[in-house]
């Protein structure tokens, strides 16, 4: 098969990914590749390898439309709790027209993510309706569902025989299917997870009609404070001919974020209408 960043093809593979970070089961995962026939265990390794209490990152979105015009947007992301069982706060800092726009996502196992969005123009926050989960977030190729992170138990998993080499890593190919139609906008998702590290390197998303509507490719794999993550993620909307590249500029782990920051009420109490000041401590990456 041919895909961006692929260095070759092979007959052995494993799957793991995390949009940002990963850690705990890395040793067990790396040592049991040949025994990792359980697709859900492979995915669980991706979710559980990140043992950090909280994460703060600064990142850049480069959004390219179908005519090749590019717009750059910068944001901060804060996460409290574990991957798929925590709270995420995304706040844009540039450009001026979207500065302060903030999305709060709260994920809990067995439940659909709850989301609220704050816009400085109205100085109010509102909940994101279920029908909006498939819409683009802030004009990017990431949807509201994509930003919220996926809950492990909201999908069933099957390990497929296809094995590829992506970014110099042998991969597992896993098919993820929602356990109920309301758990995802997608009919199914294919993931390619690196065998030797718990990170997703490639993904393909299919709509309810079985059309491939998005593809995601991750690169720049790094290990920070024992946690694996990718530093560049490109997602393409295949029907629209657009793409978005997410680049992680810096990461701070375990800075003591407070739970009170992650509430719908806090979005309106402390709206940030100016760029955030850099974190004083040195970043972990």
Summarize the structure in short:
The protein has 285 residues and is mainly beta.
Structure characteristics:
285 residues, mainly beta, two-stranded antiparallel ribbon, 16 strands, 9% helix
Number of domains: 1
SS content category = mainly beta
User: Uncertain regions: pLDDT < 50 for 5+ in a row?
Assistant: 1-37, 271-280
Which percent bin holds the helix content? under 10%
Q: What top-tier CATH class fits best?
A: Mainly Beta
Strand content: 35-45%
Largest sheet: 14 strands, antiparallel
Q: Report how far the terminal alpha carbons are from each other.
A: 33 Å
Instruction: Specify Rg, calculated over alpha carbons.
Output: 18 Å
Mean pLDDT: 82
By DSSP, the count of extended strands is 16
CATH level-3 fold name: outer membrane lipoprotein receptor (LolB), chain A
The coarse silhouette is globular
**What's the number of helices?**
4
* H/E series: HHEEEEEEHEEEEEEEEEEH
Q: CATH homologous superfamily? A: Lipoprotein localisation LolA/LolB/LppX
Q: Architecture, CATH level 2? A: Clam
């Amino acid at each position: 098969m041919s895909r961006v960043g692929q260095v070759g093809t092979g007959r052995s593979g494993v799957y793991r990914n995390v949009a940002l970070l990963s850690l705990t089961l890395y040793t067990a995962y790396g040592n049991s590749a040949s025994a990792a026939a359980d697709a859900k265990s492979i995915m669980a390794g991706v979710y559980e390898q990140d043992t950090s209490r909280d994460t703060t990152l600064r990142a850049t979105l480069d959004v390219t439309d179908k005519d090749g015009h590019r717009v750059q947007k910068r944001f901060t992301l804060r996460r409290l709790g574990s991957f798929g069982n925590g709270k995420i706060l995304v706040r844009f800092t540039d450009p001026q027209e979207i500065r302060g726009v903030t999305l709060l996502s709260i994920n809990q196992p067995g439940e659909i993510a709850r989301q609220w969005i704050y816009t400085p123009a109205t100085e109010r926050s509102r909940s994101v309706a279920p029908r909006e989960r498939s819409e683009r977030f802030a004009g990017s190729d990431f949807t509201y569902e994509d930003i919220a992170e996926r809950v492990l138990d909201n999908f069933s998993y099957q390990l497929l025989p296809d094995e590829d080499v992506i970014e110099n890593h042998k991969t597992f190919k896993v098919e993820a299917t929602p356990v109920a139609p309301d758990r995802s906008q997608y009919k199914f998702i294919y993931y390619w997870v690196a065998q030797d590290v718990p990170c997703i390197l490639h993904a393909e998303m299919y709509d309810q009609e079985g059309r491939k509507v998005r593809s995601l490719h991750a690169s720049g794999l790094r290990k920070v404070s024992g946690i694996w993550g990718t530093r560049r993620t490109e997602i393409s909307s295949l029907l629209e001919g657009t793409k978005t590249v997410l680049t992680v500029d810096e990461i701070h782990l375990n800075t003591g974020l407070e739970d009170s920051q992650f509430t719908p009420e806090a979005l309106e109490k402390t709206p940030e209408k100016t760029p955030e000041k850099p974190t004083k401590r040195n970043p972990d990456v």
